[in-house]
Amino acid sequence: MVACLWEEELEQRKEAGEVYVSLMEKKGMEKGILQEMEKGMVKEKLETARRMLERGMSVAVIIDLTGLTEDEILRLKREG
């Protein structure tokens, strides 16, 4: 009887561990997806800023409209 209870407890702990691992994997995947989305948004902002520079818009206006930093925009300007 004690062995049976021990086996039951081991099985419950194993199942709890599997659920925990599954939740952590899901959180990791969600975090990865969010990071990729953020990278995509930054890339799009940089592309928009590049086009704005090509059209002769001022750095101040580009900062205001894109939320990028002055350094980021000046780097784009130098890269031409």
In short:
By secondary structure, the protein is an all-alpha fold.
Number of strands: 0
Kindly estimate the percentage of residues that lie in beta strands according to DSSP. under 5%
The shape, in one word, is rod-shaped
Largest pleated sheet = none
Helix percentage range: over 70%
Number of helices: 3
Topology:
Elements: H1 2-54, H2 59-66, H3 70-79
Q: Which labels suit this protein?
A:
80 residues; mainly alpha; rod-shaped
Describe the overall structure.
It is built from three helices and no strands. It has helices at residues 2-54, 59-66, 70-79. The model has no long low-confidence stretch (mean pLDDT 87). It has 80 residues and is mainly α. The protein is rod-shaped and about 80 Å long. It has one domain (2-79).
